[in-house]
Amino acid sequence: MSITRKQEIINTAALLFKEKGFNAVSMRDLAQEMGIKAASIYNHLPSKQSILGAIIFEVSVEFTTHINAVIDDSLPILQKLEAIITMHIDLTLKKSEFLACMNNDWVHLNDVDKKQYIKMRNAYEEKFRSLLLQGIQEKALKPIDLEIMLFSILSTLRTFYLWYAKHQMLDFEKVKGDLCTTLLTGIRS
Amino acid sequence: MSITRKQEIINTAALLFKEKGFNAVSMRDLAQEMGIKAASIYNHLPSKQSILGAIIFEVSVEFTTHINAVIDDSLPILQKLEAIITMHIDLTLKKSEFLACMNNDWVHLNDVDKKQYIKMRNAYEEKFRSLLLQGIQEKALKPIDLEIMLFSILSTLRTFYLWYAKHQMLDFEKVKGDLCTTLLTGIRS
DNA sequence: TCACAAAACTAACGATTGTTAGTTTTGTAT
DNA sequence: ATACAAAACTAACAATCGTTAGTTTTGTGA
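^ inputs. structure came back:
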């Protein structure tokens, strides 16, 4: 079986949500984009918020899975960080609409989903933090404030989809290299 | 004359918009937060979108003014970059709600305001880009892809208000120093 | 061809939205 | 005390929202 109708709706919703934001997209907008009527969507999904949930958890699960894999891998710390950066770029190229939704519209999840999302997000950050701390302790990284380090890298990675939207045509390896350089060794020569 | 009623409304709106997003805040929500009725707001401001416009242009004008001042200043390039970073931190501390609105809700400006905003934003980026290019040419900065450099720094600065919301209690000078280090010389030792 | 499930439809609901018109209250300067 | 403007109010509007119920069409396997 190929892509389900449900998944088609989710993908289309992600695209619209990215452009206008969750609250600015009505079920009628989404339906029109699918070439059907709003009520028909409810044959596939129970609510508007559930669509948002499906979008957000699809990528947040992927992030969690990948960072766990990197942690379990036995690589030098700097290569682990590189692997994470690469993973973010990778996901950005494949699912930029989903990332945009996650970043901008997680606030509009229902209470249960929101708690779950925040939990996963915190867990992800905590794992990232541990890696950076390890890097500092091994003297591979400078002893700068851990939180600033973490925040700086994460904010760049999380909003990379914005940059991608503008510059699309790109050499994956070059972007990866330049981003690693910028984030890890800095821009000053 | 102290702070006007109009400005009070704008400030309150910025707070609510930051928390829930422009579309998720109704005029009745805003009015309730002010202790008045929704219709009363229209004695001070012509529309909901005009409130958003007031919020966004208040800070975007400030950004433009400041980067112009920095450019006109006769400082070495690295110190100019430092000055810009400092300015971003400064504005974050003073007006984090306004920055949050600008970042998240500029999409919901009316057409005229949106065009104007994008214009100012592009101009700001262009000035920033010129400074970085100058830095590269003077060999003060590494010859990395200019766009990635620009994007990386800007995305960190633009979302710094998110970090500030979590860590508030902070030593301004330390944050400034650590952020400059992270963004300019990188985290790798 | 028949049966059944998937997926579309029409029609409508109650709630909420931004906004307007017209009126009343509040504060202030003469 | 009077006049006037600022700032609040009540009441209502037309539009749009997410969602439901019930019905019809479409596609598929026996």
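Residues 26-28, 38-39, 42, 47-48 of chain B lie near DNA strand C (CB under 10 Å from a C1'). Residues 48 and 130 of chain B are 36 Å apart (CA to CA).
thumbs up if we can close this ticket
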